[in-house]
């Protein structure tokens, strides 16, 4: 499929660029696309978790171990010490413990999930291709002007480059709803989590060749 190439002012340059159909125009009805995306996103988010959650158990609560009342004859339930989970300020029963949420996923399946995500964004018309550009110095204002030119300044926007550009990175990072990423680092979650995707010509060429 072919899409128009714009300049950073949002104007059509009159040129077209080809998007690899195997990546940007897949048949989403084949296989189990939604489940593939689910598995990839679940793994990505799980790998971000620290897993350091911990609640205190009975032996870790600070309090007397004296039995509160006699075993029988009190007219109520049998009570142990004040650290009982049944009492206010007591321990937590079966509370969270530190654990590792990381999981593994087949490399080809992750690549497939990324292609499915790119296809869904292309079908939704959320991908804009711009000429390769750079900033002489970091400028958040320049990036905001680009976002306004494409009417995505109010949307979560992902800028995709074919390589690392420090000036662009510093320009984009101060904008709450904007993110910059190299094409080689793209993943299904990041693609799906943004409403608009602005790609440079260089990044499209890299994706066509390597994805």
From TrEMBL:
It comes from Lepagella muris. This is 50S ribosomal protein L4. The gene is rplD. Keywords: Ribonucleoprotein, Ribosomal protein. The lineage of its organism: Bacteria, Pseudomonadati, Bacteroidota, Bacteroidia, Bacteroidales.
